[in-house]
Amino acid sequence: MNGPVLTAATLAITFSLAAPQSTQAAEGAQAASEILGRISASRIVVISDGDFLTRTYGTAELAPRNAGYRDLLTIMSPAGGTIITASIPVSNSVTSAPEILALSEDGQTAFVAERLGERPKGGNRISDLPPGRRLFAVDLSDGAALRLSDTVEIEAFPEALSLSPDGESVAVVSNRPEASFVQIVAYRDGRFGSVARFDLADLGVRGSEPAPRGGVTSTNVHWHPSGRFLAVNINTQNRVAFFEVTGADDDALILRPWGNVVEVGADPFVGRFTPDGRHYLTANWGRNFTAKNLEGRIPQTPSTISVIRLADPATSPQSARHDLLGGAETGLSSEGIAISPDGQLVATVNMRGTAFPPGSARFHRDASVTLLSFDPATGAISRLADYPFEGSLPEGGTFDRTGDHFLATVFQGHDGAGPEAGPGLEVFRVAKGDRPALKRLGRVPLPHGAHHVDLAP
After folding, report:
1. How far apart (Å, rounded) are the C-alpha atoms in residues 425 and 171?
2. Does residue 186 or residue 252 have the better pLDDT?
3. Tens of pLDDT along 389-428?
4. Count of CB atoms within 10 A of residue 378's CB?
5. Nearest-CA neighbor of 46 among 422, 450, 405, 447?
6. Mean pLDDT score across all residues of the chain
7. How many angstroms separate the Cα of 55 from the Cα of each of 336, 353, 426?
8. pLDDT tens by residue, 287-327
9. Which residues pair with 348 in a beta bridge?
10. Distance CA 111, CA 108 (A)
11. What is the structure's pLDDT at 452?
């Protein structure tokens, strides 16, 4: 990121036909406005990483400074038939799971965690980036003039966050060399409050491998719709742990295990509770963590989804029992997962081979979204179809508030690709009925490095 968060000016752009630089630019702006105008949301928020390129994972070299990329938070809001877009610099990193952004229900505040910190002067490689230690709250109340409302220091290397249903607590997981932590940060009236920290080892999640933290790495945290429970994915152990949260921030918060730890598919990178709170779904990437290079680490077999049926919340935490029901295959190298508001559709965002250089035999020009049907009553899940689209490193995705559209972030376009295939939001209409399907609407261009998206009603 170029420049400190606190002093950078907010940028404002309007998708409109006013003074277009070319007919092509005017047509692109009009198409973006039309696409966004269909989405059921008052605000759409996207986070972008300006330090990494697609090739950085293979070369360890950061983006050239003269490329002009920045770490940004961008919001898009409909206003009088146009879409007003505003951006503010906020430090973030694509090396985290696509779970470092959350938007409050009223659309007034966005929360962002930085896994890696700001690029130092002279820094040109991944190893030059310092550990991230900050959680940000960004005030979006003035859609054209965003501002940073507060910052709090948390444990280093935060991997994911989740906002509580009441909007008053942010849960974060971090992986320091010596321990993995769950943190619960209070948030009231535009300010962060107390930070409660819990070592996963003290909560019974331990490892015995000769690796940092005994081989324990947490990559996802998610609040249950009731606000009573948290799920934490331990992707290096193929497990999910559940915890009950009791107490209040003005007293001593207590985190204790809720039922058993559940074994799932390989590398459960991210996960979601279903809207009714009866199940928890994990998107299992399937990486090989012992591999020394990109070719060895990224799997050549499809990723999977696992479905966990949760214990009755009325059961005591000690006797609660969660059960693995089964799952389904998805696309190659899935990262993000999303569940429709009615709980009947699931989508994963799949990188496929877009992380590899074009000269590699494993390179794919197209990524994909996998659409699956889900039965909220039984937990049955089945794959419907894959929907390819051009672009590199798509990660985060979300359904809109009616479930009529699906949005996937695209980190970067391929060399020579135009705006219609560059970084941005790939948008689909959801065709419902007996056989749900996705119908591509197009791409909304955004700054380089888009890697997660959230929206408000």
Report:
1. 26
2. 186
3. 999 999 999 999 999 999 999 999 998 777 778 999 999 9
4. 11
5. 450
6. 92
7. 20, 12, 21
8. 999 998 999 999 999 999 999 999 999 999 999 999 999 99
9. 337, 370
10. 10
11. 98
Mean pLDDT score, 380-384: 98
d(CA 429, CA 443): 12
- What is the structure's pLDDT at 417? 76
Residues sharing a CB contact under 8 Å with residue 445, sequence separation 6 or more, in sequence order: 28, 32, 419, 420, 422, 423, 424
Tell me: the pLDDT tens digits for 21-64?
556 556 667 788 889 989 999 999 999 999 999 999 999 999 99
The C-alpha atoms of residue 49 and residue 89 are separated, in whole angstroms, by 10
**Which amino acid type is present at position 321?**
R
How far, in Å, CA of 131 to CA of 128, rounded?
10
Q: Is the dihedral of CA 41, 47, 53, 55 positive or negative?
A: negative
Which residues, at least 6 apart from 320, have a Cβ–Cβ distance to it below 8 Å?
A: 242, 258, 259, 260, 311, 312
- Residue with tokens 């966990």, as numbered in its chain: 308
- Which positions ≥6 away from 423 have C-beta within 8 Å? 48, 391, 410, 411, 412, 413, 445, 446, 447, 448, 449, 450
The alpha carbon of residue 322 and the mean position of all alpha carbons in its chain are separated, in whole angstroms, by: 25
Q: Which residue is associated with the tokens 């300010």?
A: 191
**Given strand 405-410, what is the order of strands in its sheet?**
397-399, 405-410, 424-431, 437-445
